[in-house]
Amino acid sequence: MAKLEARNIKKSFGDDDYSLYTLDGIDLAVDAGEFVCIVGPSGCGKSTFLRIVAGLDVPDSGEIILDGQKVTGTGPEKIMVFQEGALFPWLSVSDNVSFGLKINGVPPEDRQQISTRYLEMMQLGQFARYYPHQLSTGMKQRVAIARALAMDPDVLLMDEPFAALDTQTRYTLIGEMQEIWQRTKKTIIFVTHNVAESAALGSRVVVFGNRPARIKTEFRIDKPRPRHAEDGSLADIQSKILAELRPEVKKQGDLDD
Ligand SMILES: Nc1ncnc2c1ncn2[C@@H]1O[C@H](COP(=O)(O)OP(=O)(O)OP(=O)(O)O)[C@@H](O)[C@H]1O
Ligand SMILES: [Mg+2]
């Protein structure tokens, strides 16, 4: 049985006067411990799909099944990292990371230890006492990633988490994510615009077509790890993904004209 299953997910926004058809029957089965990357043109519905998987939004029809149960809301077993890392401005970096642990009744010393571990992993150890407004966009995003990892969810849903990061940090985190994934066997769905990133991270890369989105195609990637975004051995798979993606992005341009 799949760990997580999206069954014929359809979603539109608006009303009779303005209706935007976004997801047109997404079927996706993800096994426990898979690292699935989703790529697709801007505005095709990737974030919408991830929000539905997280239980933050409801589909018009279809259902999400997690561990054999229909998803009806959010929960600590599946944590989302948002495209724009949303932090609590009134909490310090360290308290942001440990907020969910506190809610779950984890004792203060353990919270402190977990928070320090993940902040150091994100190279933010010395910023634990800072507040979000004192950080750059990329730093805030790294705090949001640390916060999600600290919760140790079964399923991690990541919406372009590295988009705001500089190349060097992004490369470091591509390595860290693979290491975390291999060590913890988490099930990860990771949305990205970056084809090289998807090929380095994913055990499977799923390509969404233009809005209303359906799954256009998918690639399994079983190259040895750790992989790097610039690995020559990934060049072939990267160009195959790009070849599927390019016409969809082009359609987007046609629609917007
Ligand atoms: N709450 C909403 N109300 C109305 N329309 C919405 C809402 N959320 C999303 N949409 C529309 O649904 C479409 C898909 O949006 P979504 O954010 O899922 O795209 P995306 O694939 O994540 O894009 P990007 O790659 O730019 O992040 C867009 O056209 C957007 O305008
Ligand atoms: Mg998005």
Please provide a written account of the structure.
With 257 residues, this protein is of the alpha/beta class. It has seven helices and ten strands. Strand 1 and strand 2 (19-30) form a beta hairpin. The mean pLDDT is 92. The structure holds adenosine-5'-triphosphate and magnesium ion. Adenosine-5'-triphosphate binds at residues 13, 20, 22, 40, 42-48, 83, 211. Adenosine-5'-triphosphate (ATP) binds next to strand 2 and helix 1.
List the helices and strands and how they pair.
Layout: E1 4-14, E2 19-30, E3 35-39, H1 46-54, E4 61-66, E5 69-70, E6 78-81, H2 93-103, H3 108-121, H4 137-150, E7 155-159, H5 167-184, E8 187-191, H6 195-201, E9 204-208, E10 215-220, H7 235-256
Helix pairs in contact: 2-3, 2-4, 3-4, 6-7
The structure holds adenosine-5'-triphosphate and magnesium ion.
Adenosine-5'-triphosphate is lined by residues 13, 20, 22, 40, 42-48, 83, 211.
Could you name the key traits of this structure?
binds adenosine-5'-triphosphate, globular, 6-stranded mixed beta sheet, binds magnesium ion, 10 strands, 37% helix, Rossmann fold, 7 helices
* Average of the residue pLDDT scores: 92
Number of helices: 7
Helix content: 25-40%
Query: Tell me, what is the CATH class of the largest domain?
Result: Alpha Beta
Portion in strands: 15-25%
In total, the number of domains comes to 2
Poorly predicted parts: none
Listing every helix as H and every strand as E from the N terminus to the C terminus, the arrangement reads EEEHEEEHHHEHEHEEH
Q: What fold name stands as the CATH topology of the largest domain?
A: Rossmann fold
Termini separation comes to 44 Å
Major sheet size, sense and barrel closure = 6 strands, mixed
Broad shape: globular
CATH superfamily of the largest domain, please? P-loop containing nucleotide triphosphate hydrolases
Structural class: alpha/beta
